[in-house]
Design a protein that fits this description.
By secondary structure, the protein is α/β, with parallel strands linked by helices. The protein has 2 domains: 30 residues; 138 residues, 2-Layer Sandwich (Double Stranded RNA Binding Domain). Helix content is 40%, strand content 27%.
Length: 177
């Protein structure tokens, strides 16, 4: 009789332990992929990470018009943080001038050097989870090079629009026919 009670106690202990472990596993939140976290987000905080205001304003107005995310005024209220970094508004041309006395002739010498940046910096959009700071998605676009200010601004707008389209397609993939 004692032996059957011991076996019964062991059986009850095993069953209760199994049920307890199963209940604990159900309480843990399911791990979500970065794409799922991005799609599940409802609020976003936009942050300018540097550079020109143009791409930031284009992406901000596009996100607002899209209406998928509600924009909030602090990172603490957001599900995701959208960082936008862009090149600065300059033409990529630098001018430097030096003056001094020549060691060979003893005369005053002046020299001027002009350099032009050939590569155009990229506009980068990075989305992070607001609570864990985990990077969920990043994309970049390189605006076309232009010498004139108006053309540079237009190229920044076009690149920012392409970048926003990538974001929209990532969150709401286009329908396949």
């Amino acid at each position: 009789m004692r032996r059957s009670l011991s076996l019964l106690n062991i059986f009850v202990l095993l069953v209760s332990t199994t049920l307890f472990v199963a209940a604990q596993e159900r309480k843990q939140p399911a791990l979500m992929s970065a794409s799922a976290r991005l799609a599940a987000a409802k609020t976003a905080f936009l942050r300018k990470a540097g550079g020109s205001d143009i791409p930031f304003k284009v992406i901000e107005s596009s996100v607002t018009a899209w209406g998928y995310f509600a924009l909030v005024d602090t990172p603490a209220k957001a599900d995701i943080i959208i960082d936008i970094s862009a090149p600065y508004d300059d033409d990529g041309v630098t001018l430097s001038s030096t003056a001094g006395t020549s060691p060979l002739t003893g005369r005053d010498e002046h020299s001027t050097t002009t350099t032009r940046q050939v590569s155009v910096p990229r506009i980068v959009l990075t989305i992070s989870d607001a609570r864990s700071n985990l990077r969920l998605w990043t994309a970049a676009e390189r605006p076309k090079y232009a010498m004139k200010q108006k053309a540079r601004e237009d190229n920044l707008v076009e690149a920012a629009q392409r970048l926003f389209s990538k974001l929209r397609d990532r969150v709401e993939p286009p329908m396949q026919e």
